[in-house]
Amino acid sequence: MEPVRCSVDCWAEFGDLLCGRVLHTGTDVLLTTGTSDLLVFSAQDNQPLHSTTILQFDSPVTSLALSEDRSRLYALCQNNGLYCTTFPLESGSHSASAQRCDDCTVSTVSRDSIIVEDRNVQSFILVEGIFVTVSLQESFWSFDLYEVLNCSTGLTVCRKHAGLQVPAVAAAIPQRTENPRVCSAPVLACIYPSKDSASTGCIQQLHFRLEPLLFRLLFGVDASLVHSPVVLCGLPDGRLFYFPLLLPANGEQRPRIRMLHSLEQSVTFIGTSVTGEQGPQCLVVIGQMGRILLIKANQASSDGKAADCSFIEQTVRGPVVCACVDGEHLYYSTSTNLVVVSLHSSATSSSSSLAAAEGDRPERRDLLSQSAVCLSVCRVIALAEPSITPTGCVQLLALCLSGRLLQVTVPQGSDKGSVSKLTSSQVGQTVKDLLAGIGNVWERASSLKHQLQLKNNTLKRLNQVISICNLLMTSQKRNQAGNEWKPPISCHGVTKWSSLLQNDSLVLTCSLENNCPFALDHGWTLCFEILSPHSLTAEGTSRTYSFALKKLDCGQKMEVSLPLDVGAELFLPVKIHCFLVYSLQSLLCPEESSGVSGSRLLTDKACISLALNTLTLDWLDSLRIGERASHGEIPKQNAAWEAAHFLLSSRRVCTEEQPVQTSGPYVVTIQVSSELLKTSLGYHDCTIAALCISVLKWLVSGTSEAEGQKLVESPVVCARGLDGQPVRLLTKEVILSDVNSEGPISAVEVQMESSSMAAVCGLHHAVLRRVQGLLKLNSVKHVSPAQLKGKHLCETVRHAESLYKDLQDSRASAAFGGAMKTRTSDLLFPLYFELRKHPLVIL
């Protein structure tokens, strides 16, 4: 498409517009801008005057027309109807009240000027004193004919003459929107049979002439005989209907409406074109998306073939916003440029091929696009009928989206492109240059596509990481609120003993379970922090293990093993904190992460850490059930001394005595209400014997190996502890009669027995921790409290106060002397066992 330089003059400016229409008649220019104002300019010597008349209506003006004698102006307003006022405008008009404002006259058109009040009317045309309106009803298009009656008072009155209806296509019914350019209104045109060959194609706006032969072939003999004007209507669904206004006296009361063609896209323009020397010989219909229908007549041949008409469909580059025809040239505007094409060359080139294919559907060609010439005028939304200057140039009046009214003068021969002939060598070099340019563009496009793909993958991985963080945070909030919610990602642990080179070691096997809809792939690391706050060193010990994840899909599990040292370095209980860590460095691809900018932005420590859960290992988890202590082993009696030594060292009490040799075994008991155990563990209907066995199984089922539970078949369990000393766990029923005021209470007594003080203390702490977990359950919180006896409570409090006084005395003696005069174990061990000799009942 080769551009042509045109002469463009700006007549007026109004500001940005959404839509508009232009009507050029004589020395007057009528203009609508999509608002309720209608502007009237007076032009002289092709230059606009400063004086302007503004007509103000109640709603936006969508269409306008002048009467045949140009004495009346008709305007269609949105949601109101059809107005009629005098033209040229008079200050004393009955339909408008005028007001002088600077250089323009503002006139308000009252609602008394409405002659057709129908808010559904979308288009209209005036043909020989008859108004034809098109309105959309519920499911059909209505064509109403109104006869114009002039009263003696000068008022215009309309009387409905007839009505026609065609069904509407549901998928193509236009919807009313706030933007007038979105909705396409029906396009109306009136076609007359031309009386001589010298007549032009256009009589006035929307009124055209057509040669008699084509008129008769298209619209029938009856309309041709009476020279009846035919109304053509292009609907938004692409269907083209027609009906004659005048009929012969054959008894019919109203005209019949017929469909001429379907363009399959919204109709933008209907007109005629002069393609030869015998007058207008071509009917032109243009669609909104660039499809053009040319209908021309084929003369009768000498071999007896009758005359017929050819339907030629061609396409141009759309969308087509507005269009007009002058002779054999078509001027149309896309959303960017104003273009002119020649209809004569394309119609003649297509007629030969179409004549050979009789009875076939119209062919679609792109010949018009090849001959299109750009006029270098942008953003035109409305065109008036073209005019010819004395020098033979074509003048167009155009309205732009920027709000400027332009007069475009097109030079002669603008549709003939000046295409120079090239030699074969020049053509070959041009092709080589084009191919080289295509190759360079392809390389750049491939590189950009690769970079874009990398960025998309990075954003996808980051979005997945943020989604996993959101799921875990939501789960933690629900658990904190007291709701039992299964976490999307969880970690569980199981302990077991392994022997290697006659050395026993405790191993923790952790299982990571992924129940979230996202996969844990490259970049994720499973970390464990083993923290022992009660080790022999005052600061405690802490170790960290990391396991990189390859890919863990939804529903899969991964197991890892953590070694736990046995001896002085392992002091139970220990806490294992589980974390999921994502390195932000893995978001970048290898070539990006190796760059300087990526290394500066994301360091090795840049990561996202998500806490999963915390596991606690105690003496119950380290029991070796079913194994008896070796006779060659010597009981480690100094374990209790080490525990007491650490306790006193943390209180800055200096001790120098050696560990005391005490005799065993040591026994510690805990009493738990049977009702509490049944409610929390779900053993409602079991007997006391079964309850004792079930409680013992529950105690050893923390994080220990599941096979150990199978060995529990009685209320007594014998095992080896962490230090290798034999331990025994016993559960039995006891009846407490002095606790509850309402009667005796059945309780389960858990008894721990061992010759090792460390084993007894560790087991006692582990059992208490499990029972405390039961008290946090929702099922236990709703149990009604028991009515305790005051005497029993008072005795228990006095006993605890006496023990506390003995402990304070021992601390005071150590403070005065700097070191205890008596053995520490002689004071602490009796207090410890005296405190547990009469345990409290957990209800």
- Output the radius of gyration: 50 Å
Poorly predicted regions: 91-96, 177-182, 352-361, 595-599, 629-662
For the secondary structure, the number of strands is: 48
Q: Strand pairing plus helix content: what structural class? A: alpha+beta
**Largest β-sheet summary:** 6 strands, mixed
Strand content: 35-45%
Shape: elongated
Widest beta sheet: strand line-up: 3-4-5-6-11-10
Textual characterization of the structure:
The chain has 843 residues and is of the alpha+beta class. 24% of the residues lie in helices and 38% in strands. The strands form 10 sheets. It has a 6-stranded mixed sheet with strand order 3-4-5-6-11-10, with no helix packed on it. The chain starts with a strand and ends with a strand.
Q: Can you tag this structure with a few keywords?
A:
single chain; 843 residues; alpha+beta; 6-stranded mixed beta sheet; 15 helices
Topology:
Layout: E1 2-3, E2 7-13, E3 21-25, E4 28-32, E5 37-44, E6 47-56, E7 61-66, E8 72-77, E9 81-86, E10 96-101, E11 104-109, E12 114-116, E13 121-127, E14 130-136, E15 140-150, E16 156-167, E17 187-193, E18 202-204, E19 207-210, H1 212-219, H2 221-225, E20 230-234, E21 239-244, E22 258-262, E23 267-273, E24 282-287, E25 291-298, E26 308-315, E27 322-326, E28 329-333, E29 337-342, H3 343-356, E30 364-365, H4 367-370, E31 373-378, E32 380-383, E33 387-388, E34 394-400, E35 404-410, H5 424-480, E36 489-500, E37 503-514, E38 524-532, E39 541-548, E40 557-564, E41 574-583, H6 590-593, H7 596-601, E42 607-617, E43 624-625, H8 638-650, E44 666-673, H9 674-681, H10 688-699, H11 707-710, E45 716-720, E46 726-736, E47 745-754, H12 757-775, H13 778-781, H14 790-817, H15 824-837, E48 841-842
Helix pairs in contact: 14-15
